[in-house]
Design a protein that fits this description.
It contains three helices and nine strands, in the order E-E-E-H-E-E-E-H-E-H-E-E. The protein is α+β, with helices and mostly antiparallel strands. The model is unreliable at 1-23 and 201-211 (pLDDT under 50). It folds into two domains: 30-43 and 151-231, Protein of unknown function (DUF541), domain 1 (Translation Initiation Factor IF3, 2-Layer Sandwich), CATH 3.30.110.170; 45-148, 2-Layer Sandwich (Alpha-Beta Plaits), CATH 3.30.70.2970. It starts with a strand and ends with a strand. 25% of the residues lie in helices and 40% in strands.
Amino acid sequence: MKKHLIASLVGAAIALSSPLVSAASPDFPHLETMGVGEIVAQPDTATVDVAVSLTRTSAQAAKKASDDAVATLLERLEKMGIARKDIESANLNLQPQYSYPKNSEPKLNGYRATRNVTVTVSDLSRLNRVLDGALADGLNRVNGISFSSSKEVELKEQARMAAIADAKAKAESLAKGFGESLAGVWEIRYMTSTPVRPTMMRMAEASNVAASYNDAEITIRDQVEVVYALGE
């Protein structure tokens, strides 16, 4: 898994003394820094959202056609070794389809049946086969593909450590530059963040599935604010 660390300089504030300190600010010389850590890694998991959406002259025919397509896909996925727990098939959505001729009553043209299937693919080498199989089995819409990592807890910890190191390095540099010394940490403010998961553009037509998804990356950031007391 490819990954790299990025330490982002967001800025820091030094306050030796000020009559305009807020109620939450310490009343002694202090220095505030913000540390940011970022991990960029290749994902190892994809969540595929596909659907079958078709129209037939009767509700029964529409339901049967959509159910058949989903059943065929589920059988194919099982043969590929994808566990049933990694597959979610939504309930049927069945709606009448009307046309509205001018100066005439609405005309019933048939019924549209739609079913969604969500597949979690933990082996990205299978992703293209899953997509091709879904399309071959009659699922004619790809709603999107999102990527994630099974190691997000570990990556989050790495991002947090990078953020802490970033905050400490900036505090030490600033204190040294102003001829001060750090007397210890007075306050830590931790800010949680959500991983940035790449998602392929929503695709209404199956023919657009050829878009590349091999270079996807997941970004995990963490951030911490630290208030240091300055020595005498």
